[in-house]
Write a structure and sequence with these properties.
Largest sheet of chain A: none
Number of domains of chain A: 1
Number of strands of chain A: 0
Number of helices of chain A: 12
Structural class of chain A: mainly alpha
CATH superfamily of chain A: MetI-like
Radius of gyration of chain A: 23 Å
Largest sheet of chain B: none
Radius of gyration of chain B: 25 Å
Number of strands of chain B: 0
Low-confidence stretches of chain B: 1-10
CATH topology of chain A: MetI-like fold
Structural class of chain B: mainly alpha
Strand content of chain A: under 5%
CATH class of chain A: Mainly Alpha
Oligomer: heterodimer
CATH architecture of the largest domain in chain B: Orthogonal Bundle
Helix content of chain B: over 70%
Order of helices and strands of chain A: HHHHHHHHHHHH
């Protein structure tokens, strides 16, 4: 590492990246084990991620429309019944998670990157740059996000996952940025950062070497919150039919079940309930996980 | 014993000078907040202008071309018609149009509806906005009041059965998207169980009802708004409860509460005047965020319950590509949210002097 050349450097080498990651993972699990609900949430998130990855592989094909099997009740052949064109609901459920989660991960990655980069910059630079970033953040924070997405959908065809993700991310970074900035501001005053500064390690080295690694769990938390926001927005867009109903995902299922009148038949109750349950559970798992992380990181809450 | 009480109160001697100073700071704080609100509205207005004008297939050009090709208008006539509808003249340079657009907005002129000719966008907004303000506002208020009461109970009885139950229920409804809660209400209570006359409850009020400030109309409006309000309350109350609980818990550890207890004040009085009042303060900042969220979510909720508020009409305008109406509604929603933010900030700084002294960060 570069600092070896510096005069007066301590002999002790800083822990390597692998070691740091291992510690982070260990701490993460210890923290989750701290609360049962948080661990359940983590398992839930894991389940949905595996489903997103494996679902379309297990069920390579959602089946052809079959007009003789419309709105069938749950049976052995179709455990969740069939939809308005006679396709199996369970198969669609297994395949429909991937698109939602992919967009959510893309959007959360982007908004987390924006908020970490500019949040850390604002907290670290201070002065007018901080004021400028915070003012911009406040402005974007006040703009009603969902109505703006709805209006944009009239101009932009939201048929690409990355496009949808980018639009969602561009509107959802402000809350995360504020949290990141507050966190960096408090970390900045810690002894080990002071020490690094006293050693004249340079802003970049302090930011990436000292501050960000200590925010790892915090970043996981922000990422999860970003994902929930993205899922909320995109499912709503599909449900309202404002994003093209092409492909298979739970949002589109919700839209079709609602628009094609599945809600009026007792037999097809599972058709509309399945996506509702899946999305709710996914959101619940992620919120529970991020909240237990928050509990652990906020000592004031932990004491009570 | 009176000497020990004013821990939480302002010191008595330099009161006058301090108040004058605070007044000045507050004025500038209020001014800062107002400026920020104005800047937000200006930026959003600018954003919508450029979205409408610069996006591929912008509605003005599309409209002009439709008039020319389908109705045999000359270009000038079509451009004039478009200018009247969109409240700006498409032939002028962009900056001139932009200036005219801003001036029209300042006058409260949002242009005319494309789909229903002769209807100004302002009158569309005036017809439907009150219903959203009514349902969303009432939902927020009920949820806030209920939430702070339950939150305090949870803090006082922490680790009790009620605390655990409310925490679980509150977290559940907080994480589940509000439109899914609305869908479940319609599917279960409206259709499958048939407990609620879901079709009869549609609309903002019953057909044939004369709008007016009488008991019959108000109860009818409440009847129609009940399900949207229920959804808003269910999905936002969790946040209020949990916030109030943690805020109350930290307030309970403040010295002035200990002192109040030592003075032998009755528990009810301590809870109301010492704990409750101080614990509720930090929640006001959340009020603005919550208002934005509820108003934003109303787009989907009103669609599900077929409640004719501003969100319902926004979707309608989008489906019919009625751009001036869309644009006007988006601006008015933004305006409402910004105003709610400003109000909450000013109220908060009024209630908690520490904010305006420390600069409001």
């Amino acid at each position: 590492m570069a600092q070896a050349a510096r005069p007066g450097q301590l002999e002790l080498a800083p822990p390597g990246l692998g070691q740091r990651l291992a510690t982070a993972v260990k701490v993460f699990f210890r923290l989750l084990a701290h609360s049962k609900a948080g661990f359940l949430g983590f398992l839930g998130v894991l389940f949905f991620v595996v489903l997103a990855l494996a679902g379309p592989i297990i069920v390579p094909d959602a089946g052809r429309p079959d007009m003789t099997k419309i709105y069938q009740p749950p049976s052995l052949e179709h455990p969740l019944g069939t939809d308005y064109e006679g396709r199996d609901v369970l198969k669609q459920m297994l395949r429909g998670g991937r698109a939602i989660i992919v967009v959510a991960v893309l959007a959360a990655t982007l908004s987390t990157l924006i908020s970490i980069a500019f949040g850390a910059l604002a907290a670290y630079a201070g002065g007018w740059l901080d004021s400028l970033i915070m003012m911009l953040t406040d402005v974007v924070l006040t703009i009603p996000q969902f109505p703006l997405l709805v209006v944009l959908s009239a101009f932009v065809k939201l048929d690409r996952p990355w496009l949808l993700a980018t639009l969602i991310a561009l509107l959802s970074w402000p809350t995360l940025l504020r949290a990141v900035r507050a966190q960096v501001l408090s970390l900045k005053e810690r002894e080990y950062v002071e020490a690094a500064r006293a050693l004249d390690l340079g802003t970049t080295r302090i930011l990436f070497g000292e501050i960000l690694p200590n925010m790892a769990s915090y970043i996981v938390m922000s990422f999860t919150i970003g994902m929930t926001a993205a899922i909320y927005a995109q499912v709503a867009l599909y449900f309202l039919g404002l994003a093209p109903l092409a492909g298979e995902n739970w949002g589109i299922m919700l839209n079709l079940a609602w628009v094609r009148g599945a809600i009026f038949y007792k037999d097809s109750l599972m058709y509309i309930l399945a996506p509702v349950l899946a999305i709710s559970l996914l959101q619940l798992a992620m919120v529970t996980m991020s909240r237990s992380l928050e509990d652990v990181f906020n000592p004031r809450l932990r004491e009570s | 014993m009176r000497q020990s009480a004013p821990v939480a109160r302002a010191p008595a001697i330099p009161q006058l000078a301090a108040r004058r100073l605070l007044g000045a700071v507050f004025r500038s704080y209020a001014l800062r907040r107002v400026l920020k609100a104005a800047l937000t509205i200006y930026l959003v207005a600018t954003l919508t202008f450029f979205i409408v004008r610069l996006m591929p297939g912008n509605p003005v050009d599309v409209y002009i071309h439709t008039l020319i090709s389908q109705y045999g208008f000359t270009y000038d006539d079509a451009a004039n018609q478009a200018a009247a509808l969109f409240a700006f003249n498409p032939n002028e340079p962009l900056l001139v149009q932009y200036w005219a657009y801003l001036r029209a907005l300042a006058r409260g002129d949002f242009g005319m509806s494309l789909v229903s000719p002769g209807t100004p966008v302002t009158s569309v907004i005036m017809t439907y906005l009150p219903w959203t303000l009514f349902s969303a506002g009432l939902g927020l208020l009920i949820s806030f009041l209920l939430g702070i009461m339950l939150g305090m109970v949870m803090a006082y009885r922490r680790e009790g059965v009620l605390d655990h139950l409310l925490t679980a229920v509150g977290s559940f409804f907080q994480s589940v998207p509000n439109y899914l809660v609305a869908i479940v209400i319609v599917v279960f209570f409206g259709v499958q169980l048939g407990w609620l006359p879901i079709t009869e409850m549609r609309g903002a009020y019953s057909p044939g009802m004369q709008p007016g400030l009488n008991l019959a109309f108000i109860s009818d409006a409440l009847y129609h708004a009940a399900l949207p309000i229920l959804t808003y309350v269910l999905t936002t109350i969790g946040a209020w409860m949990l916030l109030m609980k943690s805020s109350t818990l930290s307030t309970l550890e403040e010295d002035y509460v200990t002192v109040a207890r030592a003075r032998g004040l009755r528990d009810g009085r301590i809870m109301r005047s010492y704990v409750g009042r101080n614990a509720v303060l930090p929640l006001f900042t959340q009020m603005a965020i919550s208002a934005g969220f509820v108003v934003g979510g109303s787009v989907v909720i009103e669609k599900i319950f077929v409640y004719q508020g501003i969100g319902f009409i926004l979707l309608d305008a989008i489906n019919r590509r009625d751009y001036p109406v869309m644009q006007g509604i988006f601006l008015i929603i933004t305006f409402a949210v910004v105003a709610a933010n400003l109000l909450a900030d000013l109220l908060y700084s009024r209630l908690d002097p520490r904010i305006r002294v420390s600069g409001g960060e």
